[in-house]
Amino acid sequence: MTLQSQAVSDFQKATQHYIAGLPLDRGAWLTDHRWSAVTRFSDLGFPDKRQEAWRYTSIEGLLKQGFVTSDSDMEVVGTEFEHHFLDGPTAGRVVFVDGAFQPSLSDTHVPGVRINNLRSAMETSDLETLKSVGTLSGPGTHGFSALNMATMRDGALIRVSAGLRLDAPIDLVSISTSSASGRAMRPRHLIVLEQDAEATLVERYLSTSDNAYFTNLVCEVLLEERASLVHQRVQQESPSAYHLADLHIELQADASYRGVNLAIGGAWSRTKIGNSFAAPGASCELHGLYLAGEGQLVDFHLDVDHGVPGCDSRENFRGILYGNGRAVFDGRILVQKQAQKSSAHLSNANLMLSRRAEIDTKPQLEILADDVMCSHGTTVGQIDPQALFYLRSRGLSEERARRLLCLGFASEILEQFESGSLQDHLAELIQQKIGSETKGAS
Amino acid sequence: MSVPEQQMDELVRSEYKQGFITPIESDTLPPGLDEGVIRAISEKKGEPEWMLEKRLVAYRHWLTMPEPQWSSLHHPPIDFQSISYFSSPRPKDGPKNLDEVDPELLETYEKLGIPIDEQKALAGVAVDAVFDSVSVATTFRKPLAEAGVLFCSMSEAIREYPDLVRQYLGKVVPHKDNYFAALNSAVFSDGTFVYIPRGVRCPMELSTYFRINEAKTGQFERTLIVAEAGSHVSYLEGCTAPMRDENQLHAAVVELVALEDARIKYSTVQNWYPGDAQGRGGIYNFVTKRGDCRGDRSHISWTQVETGSAITWKYPSCILRGKDSVGEFYSVAVTKGRQQADTGTKMIHIGENTRSTIVSKGISAMQGSNAYRGLVRMTTGAENARNHTQCDSLLIGDRCSAHTYPYIEVKNPTATVEHEATTSKVGEDQLFYCRQRGLSEEDAVSMIINGFCKEVFKELPMEFAVEAQKLLAVSLEGAVG
Q1: N or C: which end of chain B has fewer CB atoms below 10 A?
Q2: Are B256 and B300 spatial neighbours (Cβ–Cβ below 8 Å)?
Q3: Optimal mutation site among B373, B424, B426, interface A, most CBs of chain A within 10 A
């Protein structure tokens, strides 16, 4: 039996065992959803390199780790994690530790915002909230997302009321500790902004250990008419961690979404952002910055689907590669037949600092309508020797000059993190990460 | 821009200008494919044992391969058993000169506008005209022979220069490469062989006109061009085909080998029958073209203008092995009616300081579908390698489509890769500007499209550049303005 088919059958057994072990009072209809996701998983299996979307990303290492589907009931009290919270005022905080919601660390009392977590919604059979779960993601587009659906345990459920404008960001933070080691966590978030609502959500994945664990995340974002969301995401998992994120974003008429994604941690990470327009007039911006260093693989997939006329999308992703880091970028823009007056522009720039690094980038345009403005651009290059020379001639050390140029390259994306302190913190983090690499002349 | 339905209809109904059939008896094998057919082809061509062996190895491998499904093309399954794999105009013992050539055949060329006799004197182009599967006329052999250039049909080359053929054939495109290359390696009927000796600059532009004539016959051309150190050759390939109701399969393989400081320029104008308005008929064109820049400072340049065929599946590629070698790809692909094109290139950078340029212009009109699919790979040894890619798509009408699928793989930090692509329709502002300067809408659109393709056309040899512009104008007649 191959590793793949062995893993599929192992996961099938483990998943069935997991569902059978769940208390019965948690809503029978949800159990049906879980079983149909198991069937879905059996049909799909795990993705392999023969599938176009996975041709550059092997999951062999992930399967070999043999992560176990299990839950933590740990409830944290005290101030141990406080320094991970966002500085400054926030409009609510949702904290997960090792996949479990932490009521005493969270702040869910924000007028006009309903903040709940998946587990308590299931325990109280809050069907009103639960019925929206999975409407955007379906039972799963690949084996992992089907497994998330089958075994989902906890996650944030956030609903911002119509017309409400939040001045401060909502802080959604997931922290993994050493007790997450060897475990597969399956968070599932659902964010809904009702009509005319405006909010900023900061979603972060942090770790307090260097252990290996697996985050198998599905996040659904629904923006109703004229709603506007700024979604700032930071993936800063442990250096041995595996992180798989599936984002499903749906925009209704005149809604606007601005996402910025920073991927800096993890041994292996893959983020897929699927964006669809449900009605004309919506606009979507996706920004991203990825750093892939020694032993890291970072993979970003964008799937922007223009299914209705008159929507705008902009994608801008940048990557810095060093050590033997590998990055994969796949940016697909689909403009369907009826989607006239669409505008879609994608850009992907990569900076290679080391001889052993590798980048595989694949922007795609699929255009079926004629009255459109679409473009994509991709570059792969190194630090400009002239810029370096200029900085050296102004008295900067080689190391500082290189670091400055890298930071300059990253700043276009970093600026999208509006909060000054978060931006500074991330810039500092990036400098630390690439600091050692920029010492030598690659 | 609105597209007047009436004009469009006229174009759709207008007959394919090169659509006529020359009634010539031909020596054709019955449809079907098995080892017996391959043995028969080999025997008819009087091939040596090693060639038959090569064919059989390829055939056996082909049987184990699945048909590729990854492209964006849609077509009914091809029944490989319903195709006749060999067709040759009246078997004679090889005509020595034009007088011996069937006059009806010559007339066909006249209709196509290829007056072989006049071309000798006027165009300075040596033509190895391929009528169906066997080369029937080869001109300008003498002046070429004086320069030491070998320019002959593949069958002849196998008989007369077996060592050269054995040394190079199947080395750039091995039979295991892909499904259609394997098929071609098994059943190829004929093609062109060009050998330019060391330091020779080929005294004239070489050209082959392909023409599919026999009903239900696939054409499986095999072309091999070897340019020895310091040599230089420009090769022109042009195609037209008569009107047919059934889909005709064409699976050619072209191999180029450029040694040190050698330079090969390969230009194609492809205008095979694209099928009727309902998508019936038309050529299925599955081509494998690859150039090996084996020597340092070698240079291979592909230029193509693709206006015909129901289906085009073609990725002329360069393997940039030699230091400082250069690969180029310039392409204009036009799809209209129900034509589908999935075309692009691969640039594999292996050597130091290798450079490549890709310019691809896709024009989709009516229900045409056009895809650019390309790969740029910088391997670890590709020190200071450089690539620039520009892919632009122009959409005319709201039922067509344009896709861009570039793959970029970089493993060397000193390599620089740039890729840009745009998709849009003819700009209203450009059109408005031209109109207010007194141009008719049709002229304005034609001018804008010609401008759009200019970067590629300027790479074509003179004769082709003129032909290509005409072809484009005819192809898009009525579809624009």
Answers
A1: N
A2: yes
A3: B424
What whole-number distance in Å separates Cα of residue B252 and Cα of residue B244?
Answer: 19
Name the closest residue on chain B to residue A334, using Cα atoms. B403
User: Torsion over CA of B125, B126, B131 and B137, rounded to 10 degrees?
Assistant: 140
Is residue B7 within 8 A of residue B475, CB to CB? The reply is no
Residues 6+ apart with CB under 8 A from B231: B196, B197, B198, B199, B200, B201, B202, B259, B262, B263
Give the closest-approach CA distance of B52 to chain A in angstroms. 34
**Neighbouring residues of B405: CB distance < 8 A, sequence distance ≥ 6:** A362, A364, B72, B344, B371, B372, B373, B374
CA–CA dist A308, B276 (Å, integer):
32
- Closest A-chain CA to B394: A370
Chain B hits for A409, CB-CB cut-off 8 Å, are none
CA A307 to chain B, closest CA, distance in angstroms equals: 14
Q: Give me A124's structure tokens.
A: 């109280």
Cβ-based neighbours of A57, under 8 Å, separated by 6 or more: A49, A270, A297, A299, A328
CB pairs under 8 A between A and B: 108
Cβ of B409 within 8 Å of Cβ of A360? The answer is yes
Mutate to test the interface with B, among A317, A320, A380 (most CBs of B within 10 A): A380
Q: Which two tokens stand for residue A56?
A: 């550059």
- Chain B positions touching A363 (Cβ under 8 A) are 404, 406, 419, 421
Residue type, A228: S
Asked if B125 and B463 count as a contact pair (C-beta separation under 8 A), the reply is yes
Conformational region of residue A166, where left means phi above 0, alpha means psi within -120 to 50, and beta covers everything else: beta
Query: Do A178 and A207 touch, CB atoms closer than 8 A?
Result: no
Across the strands, what pairs with B40?
A: none
Q: How many CA atoms lie within 13 A of B142 on its CB side?
A: 3
How confident is the prediction along chain B (481 residues), in pLDDT tens digits per residue? 344 444 444 544 455 555 555 555 556 778 888 898 999 889 888 899 999 999 999 999 999 999 888 887 888 888 888 888 877 654 444 445 555 555 555 555 555 555 454 444 333 345 555 554 444 445 566 778 889 999 888 888 999 999 999 999 999 999 999 999 999 999 998 888 999 999 999 988 887 654 444 544 457 889 999 999 999 999 988 765 454 545 678 899 999 999 999 999 999 888 777 877 777 778 889 999 999 999 999 999 999 988 888 899 999 999 999 999 999 999 999 998 889 999 999 999 999 999 999 999 999 988 889 999 999 999 999 999 999 999 999 998 888 899 999 999 999 999 999 999 999 888 888 889 999 999 988 888 888 888 898 888 888 887 677 777 777 776 676 665 4
d(CA B149, CA B157): 12
Interface list for chain A against chain B, based on CB atoms closer than 8 Å: 52, 337, 340, 350, 352-355, 357-382, 442
Residues belonging to chain B with any Cβ–Cβ distance to chain A shorter than 8 Å: 70, 378, 380, 393, 395-425
- Per DSSP, the residues of A151-188 read H----EEEEEPTT-B-SS-EEEEEEE-GGGTTEEE--E
Chain B residue at shortest CA distance from A332: B405
ipTM exceeding 0.90, yes/no: no
CA distance A45 to chain B (A): 21
* 3-state secondary structure at position A403: helix
